[in-house]
Input
Amino acid sequence: MVEPRSIAFGPDRWLTDSRVYNLVWMGRWLERADNTARVINSFARLAVENGSDMATLQQSLSNAAAIRGVSIEEPPRTLGMLIKEHPVSSIYHSLATARGNATHVGTVELIRAMSEAVLTLEDDGAMPQTPLGALLLTNQVLERLSAVYRVIDDNWFHQEALSEEEIYRRFVQQQQ
Amino acid sequence: MQTELGGSIAFEPVAVHYAYVARYSYSDIVVQNDNFLRLTAYADTYQTPGSCGVATFPQGRQVEYPDRLGNTVHRVRVTVPHQELIIAAAGKVCLNHHTPVVPDVPLNSADYGLDAQEFLSASRLADPESVRNAALEAAAGATTLLYTVDNVVQWIYTNIRYERGHTSVNTAAADVLVSRRGVCQDQAHLGLAMLRSRGIPARYVSGLLTRQPGETHAWVEFLHPQFGWLPADPTRGVVIHIGTDYLKFGVGRDYSEVPPVSGSFVSRGGGHLDFTTARVFFDRDNISVDDALELLPSGHPSP
Amino acid sequence: MLTRDISKTSLNEHLHSDGTTRSVYQPLIDSLNGLGAPELQQRWRQANASAALDAFTFMLDPREFRTVPTDWLPRLVPADEWETISRGVAQRLKAINHFLSDLYCGDQQVVPQDVMYSCQYYNPELQDHRPAADVFVHIYGIDLVHMGDGRYVILEDNLRIPSGIAYQMKTTEIGLDVLPELAGGYDIVPYDIRSAYLDMFASLCDTDSPVCVLLTDSKFGSAFFEHRYLSELLGIPLVEGSDLYIGHNGRVWVRSLDGDFEVDLVYRRVEDLELFVPGLTQAYLDHKVALVNALGTGACDDKLVFLWVPDMIKAYLGEDAILEQAHSYDLRSPANRQYVLQNLDTLVLKTRQGYGGLGVFIMPDLDKGYRSRLSQQLIEQPQVFIAQETLDFSQHLVFDESSGEFEERHVDLRVFAVQNGRGEVTVFPGGLTRVSEANSRVTNNSSGGSCKPSWVVR
Output
């Protein structure tokens, strides 16, 4: 037991159970959103470079999704599913859930950066209709995600704080 | 024992002791259990309560107060975690063997005043409108108070079969009329609705039958413009002259206002009444809630 | 542009009863006219976006991210009107606190026993337990409506876990940020919630720098925004029930990866403590931890107990109530029941234990079928309800961002106050103005209403 006054470190150092829980899950959801965005981004870039059409892009994304264990029932709708509609695996869902975790973790700056990322996908009219559209949208998402990572790196896991691995290790230990 | 005294017959009062116990079981830990107990002898001309008390196991903090109808309520809040709650009540009461000689009055002449209005209108389980035609039939053309009460009580006694398992604490008078069966509580509700429908203020009584141990009983009271509230029991076909057979805990517009035990608990699980019984003793000198615990099949709860 | 769509039936906050503009609103109206509708639409979108970015939420459904609908046009209360409100709120808070102390540790004679003891939120286990510094009500929320000419009437008290103070701050914060022009010509009376709360916390503990935590129900709770906002503002850890446990020394501990730590005070934002932290009630009864608000305050949240608050003020302070309260009917009385049944269509029915707009029925605003069902329920279970006069309280301009038009909506005012361990009361100027939906007089956020910034101005 450390002595009580250790909480004087300030809000970004309270590693209460519930906060660590949200930290861990926020990280996982962010990573998932990041992964999905990168997969779409790479395939869209290839499609733009090769001049392939939307149907081809949808099909290759569907295959890629299947490899990751996400089965899409209607391959022609894969892009939409992966960006927004899939209730678990879409970028939108992953980001929104990560933002939910962020509201518990704080701070306002982080919540804001996360919200910016979610907002890029909020507008249904902006759903890409072409491979180029998909490329641009995922570029935007990845930019927003970089902004989130900057907030985390700059303000948060500063020198005296625990590393992510350490937090995760202790979390797993405590759950056992 | 009995002597002639003017027009009425006087009997010796009888002092009795009662004990009640109930055990509730829960499927998960209960962290807070808040109960309102109406298990204390009521004071009126038919009975005079002595010292009465309630207790729960685990123990909780109690407050005692009279509710707006004059019932003694014990509120007990248990804040120790538990998965089983025992509620016990015990007390002394003098049964006065009251035998009033009551004049009959024409129904349409009775003016009951504002205070009686709530006993004429619908309550949750006894809505006069819902039994209007049957009440007319049951009253069999009676135009005076006592004849009407008598006819209604006899009609229920004859036509509603006493049968367990078909009704619940939420069964309303109208349902009883359809199914034609139920327990004392249902017969009382039908009685209330019918009497109200005939313009007679009526209320529900919760208590015990002193010579039929085992469970709580329910009957009704109707309002006489000069004599006040008088008892009538549709289950047993008895009116006014109840001898020393009845021990009254409380009154309400129907069961929902005067259940022996009502309350709420905080838990992730559910609960159910596991065991309950009651007894009235004619031969004891004293009683305590510990004696009520003796009525449990497994004896005392472990401390 | 402000003269369109002004309803003539109710008082409008920016108008006198003769239709002339209240002087306090003149600079605001000039600013609005100066900006013009297209610019206002633009700013409204900006403010809404800002609210979304900051996750300024009031969740009705845990699965749905929902920002608080806000009308960014401020409601203005002149400082002299506020003076009365502030004194009235402080007076009421003190009287209620005296009453609670007498109820649990004395022999109160103000409220009839059957009313008090049948109240769901009365806690028998608190008998003879004195909270730290004898303060029961640390944070108080009171709902007022304005009847015009500075006459404010109390609709209800919120004493358990009143919410909204962070909404009061955030609406003003975003509003001023996005629409600084609207503050032109005003000296807005400031307040310092952080200092008042931290001072109050410290005054309840034996130590000078107590360890305090804010106990939330979870990030899925409706007012979670407020929980995390206050946690950050006050610099105290935000904890869930599972983070707390009772240690071997009987004190409350927080589980933490850095090592567990002891807590002196729990600012609790949950109702059923025992469900969240088993043993917390006992730790409190053993004086091992301070609770804000104390347990037992809910006894005065009961809508029936509300009827006796003016008597509490008389009995404990020897004063007359500064603020009047909505005239209410105790339905235990047969005469009242008869009156209410006969006049039901003009009254408000409230359930004794309701909160957040639940269990409030404004009869004149309901359709006939609904009214007759309620009337039947009232006949069957009069003890569940109280009846209240229907007040034709004030409306306020709201701006409809999509049409670019101004409209009128009924508004109430929830005012917050804190009481510290020295018995000093601070009432925070402004409060949270809650706005009804069109054609409704129910203003609670739980019922879908929106809110607006409120300024006390000199």
About this structure: Residues 17 and 175 of chain A are 10 Å apart (CA to CA). Residues 1-9 of chain A have pLDDT under 50 and may be disordered.
